[in-house]
Design goal:
Blueprint: H1 13-18, H2 22-67, H3 76-87, H4 94-99, E1 101-106, E2 113-114, E3 122-132, E4 145-154
Antiparallel strand pairs: 1-2, 1-3, 3-4
Helix pairs in contact: 2-3
């Protein structure tokens, strides 16, 4: 029935009672996929952030290693790990984080690994074995995301020709 001056027909009370729960169902059907996509984006952004942070941390570690400097009371490798942990903004904290930081030295001509951190050798610093579990396992995969970073540089000659103790 149309009344004078009204554009839309009136909805009968019987029809209104049948539609009462439909709004809750519509919200649930729209909200679940929206939240899944939102959490997927947050997880993806965190993984990208971690990768960029770790890459920056190992670059800074290589810059520190190339100069041959050390912190007071620490050897060269321990000082490098401290710098990498500092730039990893807490994601590689403690002993467990330090274990994920690998430092290797190579002879430039043959690229064979050596234990010497003498000037002219190549230093490689990497973060290996860091795993990140997503907040919401959307794809039902129990495997975490593995994140790694690697950087290299050439050691500068030490003053007096004696490399710092490792």
């Amino acid at each position: 029935m149309l009344t004078a001056g009204a554009c839309a027909p009136e909805i009968s009370p019987r029809r209104r009672a049948r539609q009462r729960g439909s709004q809750v169902v519509e919200v649930a059907l729209c909200l679940l996929p929206f939240l899944a996509i939102l959490f997927l984006l947050i997880d993806l952004c965190l993984v990208i952030f971690l990768k960029a942070t770790f890459q920056h941390a190992v670059r800074e570690g290589v810059r520190f290693a190339m100069t041959g400097r050390t912190f007071e009371g620490l050897g060269h490798d321990a000082s490098i790990k401290r710098v990498v942990q500092q730039y990893a903004i807490g994601f590689l904290g403690g002993e467990q984080g330090a274990e994920k930081i690998k430092i290797r030295y190579f002879v430039p001509g043959t690229l064979t690994e050596t234990s010497s951190n003498a000037g002219g050798n190549i230093v490689e610093i990497s973060i290996e074995g860091f795993s990140w579990r997503p907040m919401v396992p959307l794809f039902k995969s129990p495997d975490p995301v593995m994140i790694s970073a690697r950087s290299t540089g050439i050691m500068e000659p030490s003053p007096g020709g004696v490399p710092p103790p490792r």
